[in-house]
Amino acid sequence: MIKYSMLIGRYQPFHEGHQKLVQVLLDEGKNVCIALRDTPISDTDPYTIEERTKMINDVFPQVKVVSIPDIEEVVYGRKVGWGIRQLQLDKETEEISATKIREGSLVNR
Known about the structure:
Elements: E1 5-9, H1 16-27, E2 32-37, H2 49-59, E3 64-68, H3 91-94, H4 98-103
Parallel strand pairs: 1-2, 2-3
C-alpha cells in the first residue's frame, strides 16, 4: 500500500513557496498528496479546483491532487498512525504570500 505526505490548503494560486514545500517532501522520497480545499470563487479564492489542480500537475505530474470540503480544522485522536509536521523553509520562501500575489495580478473571469 502506498503512503503519502499530505499538504492541505487553498493554493490560490500555487506559487514558488508551495513548490518548495512539495520539493522538500519529494527530495525526502515521499509520495505527495495535495488536498485542495473546495472554496467558493471569491476575490481571495479566484481559482477553481480544476485550475489549481492543473497549476500543480503542470509542475509536479507525479503528485496526487484531491478535492476536500472547505475544512475549518484538522482533528485527530490518540495513536491514529500518522503525524503532523510543519516544514520550515528559508526566510525568503516563508515570506511568499498568495494574498500579495493575487493583489498584484489581474484575474480575468
